[in-house]
Design brief:
The chain contains six helices and no strands. The protein is mostly helical. The protein has a domain of about 80 residues. Helix 2 packs across helix 3.
Amino acid sequence: MFFDPQCKPANAQAAAWVSVRTQAQVCLDAIDLIEQRGWCQGTAEEPGTPDKPGPVCVSRALFLACPHSYVLRSALCNKLSGLVSTRYVHLWNDVPGRTKAEVVAMLRKAAAL
């Protein structure tokens, strides 16, 4: 999904987007999205209605929290992959038995780093 171990900021301005504070804010925004919309597995986003958008997986929540910066999302997913011991955060999200509470806890932990 967003993981790219070779991704490097193109310049100093792009590197500024990859700050710890910015990554933390994206994690907190993703938590807010999951809390508001709900969490799902096996798909990026479940159907919703115009009044109530459907639940999202962790990867979709991260994308919606930061839709305009691939560099930031890639750097953040690199950090998250270290926390969950798998290269692909969306696969960790989809493990049978995984819970919303575990996903939120992982994002909170990442925000604190």
